[in-house]
Amino acid sequence: xxxxxxxxxxxxxxxxxxxxxxxxxxxxxxxxxxxxxxxxxxxxxxxxxxxxxxxxxxxxxxxxxxxxxxxxxxxxxxxxxxxxxxxxxxxxxxxxxxxxxxxxxxxxxxxxxxxxxxxxxxxxxxxxxxxxxxxxxxxxxxxxxxxxxxxxxxxxxxxxxxxxxxxxxxxxxxxxxxxxxxxxxxxxxxxxxxxxxxxxxxxxxxxxxxxxxxxxxxxxxxxxxxxxxxxxxxxxxxxxxxxxxxxxxxxxxxxxxxxxxxxxxxxxxxxxxxxxxxxxxxxxxxxxxxxxxxxxxxxxxxxxxxxxxxxxxxxxxxxxxxxxxxxxxxxxxxxxxxxxxxxxxxxxxxxxxxxxx
Length: 357
Ligand code: ATP
Hints:
Layout: E1 2-7, E2 12-19, E3 24-31, H1 41-68, E4 82-88, H2 92-109, E5 113-117, H3 118-130, E6 136-140, E7 145-151, E8 154-160, H4 166-176, H5 184-191, E9 203-204, E10 207-208, H6 211-222, H7 225-230, H8 244-270, E11 274-278, H9 285-298, E12 301-303, H10 307-310, H11 314-326
Helix pairs in contact: 1-2, 3-11, 4-6, 5-8, 6-8, 8-9
The protein binds adenosine-5'-triphosphate.
């Protein structure tokens, strides 16, 4: 089986081909980089429209090369068996463009469509690459933060953010500093030169909240709530503020400890001894270190896929698409609408039945 995956929920116009026989994935991505501020949905949608055809053509070129070497694939056969695309969650204007592209390619090649939940793809790629059987999954991405575990046919959300996604919280803090998007890698770099500065730590039950930590981080660099509330200071790092490196260090420690605590409690609750990480924030070495240490102390195994599978990418869509296709989980064009608020626990998992009795 070969699958074309198409992704475009937020910033990555991405297409990939997954070849099941060799378990290889080729990913082609064009990233949207805002001139200023964060992701503007209309600009991001324009980026999808401008770049999706090109990344799809590049991925299909890989598929044709693989098909040429495949004795079971005739000269007139399509180079892929199906087209998988991100149905959501994500920015509606982006999702609509990508879904339209997926429908057009599937019709042109005369192959079925597979509609993939982007968050389930973030976690399934870790399970696929690790070979773990039934791990707890921490998805730490831009717009989301979930701790999930599989039970009775669905990925159940054991813990999630009560306000913003974890990456978005970090990006909002760096926007306040006038740092360019995305902020996560810049905070990681600055944190290395900083000392610990204490910031709020908010875990309620199994859920976490990031907005208070983010506001406190802004206040700390500004030198107190009063100066940030006035908006008078044009330089956020003006007098009296905590050094920005210290705030970055404290921000990482608080936010990542919150994610680690809930992941640990999910391991304890489910009795699982496997944890996989997914999502763009998972590229952060300090987060991986904390999760790795926690797992080591419990005698659990920890796996984080390589960076190209952590950030948004069509590779994870193609890999999960292949599993769904094998399970007969395809969509007609009429059923292939997008869902900007598609939750991971809405997905009826079709592809694990034979794996976990
Ligand atoms: P979602 O998958 O929820 O739709 P998303 O589309 O925003 O989220 P991802 O690619 O999963 O995308 O994650 C992007 C986020 O990852 C951004 O918020 C970015 O700041 C963050 N990020 C990237 N690298 C790092 C890093 N090294 N440390 C912390 N955060 C990072």
